[in-house]
């Protein structure tokens, strides 16, 4: 009589077909025992280790969510199909960890139609893999009843298939959200109660689809916060402000406001800046403080000037603001700086325009090592 555990350890790297023979054969032919044999409790762990490259610990965790199947035929077919679609290695292990029940799926009726659907949308094999990894729930959705209707809805809301494909490739929340229970109620709320037309909402959603998939109660709370700050729904930046507030807790918001007050901003300064460029609040308090100090102490801008042109707070100190400030000092030392130059424009001009306006005209007088 042999010991199964010892046998498995001795054959840890055997291919799955041999494992099946080891675990399902009792001396008679393997095929005659598959229908009635009950697999060893450690079989699934060994199967995941040998076929997918799981560590023993990870395989043990995943195996607890797997059904006790009597044959690996279906699991082998699933793994073969997923590999044929470009899923392998770490991606394959992640997918099985997220959805262990995949190993019990029928390839032809469940998995293949979903990948066909993604390819018919216009996704390449590699893009389809990326989409599945970002939206693994796609593999759990009924193609006809849920997946296709959901894709058509988002394509309509985004306004084009290209935008749908772009967001599928980069965003990982919107496909898992219920249209009827979340998205439509949010759209109706913004349109009917806030007076924001759907085309304006669509413009924001095209860039940030995660915005409209908030829990409806959470969205109402964000609207209340924005209105409490003094931003009316009719403001063109209202939806962008809601998006920013979603990522900025009340506590962080209060800390940032207190910081800006300490630099001399009034409440009206803050509101004016927030209406124009709300994303400056997404910075950490430390980075925001460094930028304000730089503009006030080094550039000698007044706090109200920063508030009136908050776009300057969007740029990196090291990559944009400090190098341009060094150039400004050189231009001043050479007598090339005039009072007509607006500082906020100097710092916010796009690279090509900045080069044409402040570098090319003076290239003979600037050091060759000058950072641009």
The gross shape turns out to be: elongated
Strand count, sense and barrel status of the largest sheet are: none
Element-level helix/strand string: HHHHHHHHHHHHHHHHHHHHHH
Strand residue content:
under 5%
Structural class: mainly alpha
Number of helices: 22
**Counted beta strands:** 0
User: Helical percent range?
Assistant: 55-70%
Low-confidence stretches: 1-38
Taking the alpha carbons of the first and last residues, their distance comes to 79 Å
Alpha carbon gyration radius: 30 Å
Assembly state (oligomeric): single chain
Average pLDDT over all residues: 85
Notable characteristics:
372 residues; mainly alpha; 22 helices
What would your notes on this structure say?
With 372 residues, this protein is mainly α. The protein is 63% helix and 0% strand. It has helices at residues 4-10, 16-24, 30-33, 43-52, 56-63, 73-84, 89-98, 107-121, 125-134, 143-158, 161-170, 179-193, 198-207, 216-229, 238-247, 250-262, 267-276, 285-298, 303-308, 317-333, 343-348, 351-358. α14 (216-229) packs across α15 and α16 packs parallel to α18. The model is unreliable at 1-38 (pLDDT under 50).
């Amino acid at each position: 009589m042999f010991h199964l555990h010892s046998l498995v350890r001795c054959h840890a790297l055997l291919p799955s077909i041999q494992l099946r023979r080891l675990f399902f054969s009792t001396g008679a032919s393997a095929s005659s025992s598959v229908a009635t044999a009950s697999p060893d409790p450690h079989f699934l762990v060994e199967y995941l280790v040998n076929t997918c490259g799981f560590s023993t610990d990870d395989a043990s965790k995943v195996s607890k969510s797997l059904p006790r199947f009597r044959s690996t035929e279906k699991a082998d077919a699933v793994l073969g199909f997923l590999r044929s679609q470009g899923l392998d290695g770490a991606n394959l292990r992640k997918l099985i960890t997220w959805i262990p029940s995949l190993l019990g799926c029928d390839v032809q009726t469940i998995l293949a139609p979903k990948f066909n659907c993604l390819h018919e949308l216009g996704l390449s094999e590699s893009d389809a893999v990326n989409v599945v990894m970002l939206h693994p729930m796609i593999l759990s959705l009924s193609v006809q009843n849920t997946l296709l209707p959901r894709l058509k809805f988002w394509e309509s809301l985004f306004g084009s298939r290209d935008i749908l494909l772009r967001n599928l490739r980069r965003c990982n929340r919107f496909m898992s959200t219920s249209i009827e229970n979340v998205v439509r109620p949010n759209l109706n709320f913004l349109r009917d109660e806030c007076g924001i037309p759907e085309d304006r909402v669509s413009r924001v959603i095209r860039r940030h689809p995660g915005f409209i998939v908030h829990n409806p109660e959470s969205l109402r709370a964000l609207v209340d916060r924005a209105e409490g700050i003094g931003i009316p729904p009719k403001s063109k930046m209202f939806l962008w402000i809601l998006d920013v507030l979603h990522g900025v807790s009340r506590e962080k918001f209060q800390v940032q406001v207190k910081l800006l007050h300490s630099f001399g901003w009034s409440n009206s300064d803050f509101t004016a800046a927030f209406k124009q460029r709300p994303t400056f609040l997404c910075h950490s308090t430390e980075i925001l403080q460094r930028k304000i100090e730089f503009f006030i102490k080094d550039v000698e801008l007044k706090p109200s000037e920063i508030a009136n042109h908050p776009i300057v707070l969007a740029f990196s100190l090291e990559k944009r603001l400090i190098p341009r400030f060094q150039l400004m000092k050189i231009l001043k030392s050479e007598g090339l700086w005039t009072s007509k130059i607006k500082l906020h424009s100097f710092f916010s001009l796009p690279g090509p325009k900045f080069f044409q306006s402040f570098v090319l005209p003076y290239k003979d007088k600037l050091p060759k090592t000058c950072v641009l």
